[in-house]
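Appendix B. Worked example

We walk through a single record from start to finish. Start with the input: the chain for Methylthioribose-1-phosphate isomerase, Methylophilus aquaticus, length 357.
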Amino acid sequence: MKIRDQHYRTIWREQQTVCIIDQTLLPFAFQVVRIETYVEMCHAIRTMQVRGAPLIGAAAAYGLVLGIQAVADDDVLHAVADALIATRPTAVNLRWAIQRMLAQLLVVPQAQRAILAWEVAQSIADEDVTQNHAIGQYGKALIAHAVTVNPAQVVNILTHCNAGWLATVDGGTALAPVYAAFDAGLHIHVWVDETRPRNQGASLTAWELAQHGVPHTVIADNAGGYLMQNGQVDMVIVGADRVTRQGDVCNKIGTYLKALAAADNQIPFYAAVPTPTIDWQMVRGADIEIEMRDADEVAYMQGQGIDGRLQRVRVIPKESQALNPAFDVTPAKWVTGIITELGIFSPADLLTLEAKS
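Next comes the structure step. The output line below is what the pipeline stores for this chain.
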């Protein structure tokens, strides 16, 4: 992704440290943070300085690297891995990345682990970029087909939360088809759900679409159903933090309601994910651990004041309590297809992917 004519990934190595883009400051400030220890990486993941399933997988991999540079024995390796896995429980990519790191590091002598860890983490990051590019190409074909149905019409795509390049190492998942279609000259427009309570749609998706020049409009979360009823949405594309082997999709809270509205209005609903987001060990979405985050994320909102400074304001009565489940699960029966780097699959056909993953 280019920011001010300079290409960025969301995470990268600089000598013996790791750099990230602090997403808690966007869209009002663009700041790069240098991470030097695994404890700092745990903090960055937990506080959502880095977020999005593919990105926190890569971040966890780099965090493990930082944690074993001084001592790389088995005890340290497992302790650092456990600390990183505990930061966020719902997205499967984080555990997948750590397990991949452990599988390759535990079988080599301790003296080789610090160097090898950098190589494995880098490969995880590079593979994510490649996978996202392929997702973009498969998704672009869906958008192109919608154009052939009505060449004179702009294709309106609704998305929820942020599943763009900021949620990955680069390229995006749900937004990868959008960027690919836009770059190919297809006429598209994106409806961007604000995505309460953290407003990742309004703050992050809108920001990166604007950077790329993609036409878009930010809407309140509750406006999506109205737009679908009035023929203003042609397809819904979201990302996911975990997809079960039967095709249930766990994504940012509010996704389930969009899927129900799409089904009621005969609008296709797609989840775009790299295959590491598919949890082949989990059959039912009901078994996914849903992260409960701090209630203050609901009680307070962050924005830019008229003086240009970031401000945090309370939006509910001080006597009121708040509940903050971070994700919900859309059952497979409401999912039209899963867009992966290996193709587009209906939930019923998803198991054909398992042997390739």
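Two observations about the output. The longest helix spans residues 110-149. The domain at 2-127 is CATH 1.20.120.420 (Four Helix Bundle (Hemerythrin (Met), subunit A)).
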